[in-house]
Design a protein that fits this description.
The chain has 129 residues and is an all-alpha fold. It has one domain. The chain has helices spanning 4-22, 26-36, 42-66, 72-95, 98-120.
């Protein structure tokens, strides 16, 4: 276990740098890293990632709020939706096998990766702007 701490710290720092540079959520990077390199079970990696996102989101929200860059007409419905979706997602996660959850995550990452590559060439998929 102690050998995982430096690995986790190093990878998390790299994920933070990539997240800041590319504007992607750190969870997109951290869930596969925690599962594949740090050997954290998928369900625990998802939960850990959600906790990290929650903490950093609260801190970031205060920064944006202090700068007057938060629109309550967007934030309030989004918070309600995220709260409801989080409740549904956590209940579904308990019912899904870890292998199925990993497969779903891989499909979503694949779709996001393909859509980003296509967008670099000014090609959009249906439903995108």
């Amino acid at each position: 276990m102690p050998g995982r701490i430096p690995l986790g710290l190093g990878i998390s720092t790299g994920a933070g740098v990539l997240s800041g540079m590319l504007g992607v959520g750190g969870g997109v990077i951290m869930v596969p890293v925690m599962n594949l390199l740090m050997r954290v079970p998928v369900k625990a990696a998802v939960g850990t990632s959600a906790l990290m996102v929650g903490i950093t989101s609260v801190a970031t929200a205060f920064v944006f709020y202090s700068q007057g860059k938060i629109d309550p007409t967007v934030v309030v419905p989004a918070v309600i939706g995220v709260f409801l979706g989080g409740q549904i997602g956590s209940r579904l996660t308990r019912r899904l096998k870890a292998r199925r959850l990993a497969w779903i995550f891989a499909v979503i990452l694949g779709y996001l990766g393909i859509s980003l590559i296509l967008r670099a060439f000014d090609i959009t998929l249906p439903g995108q702007q």
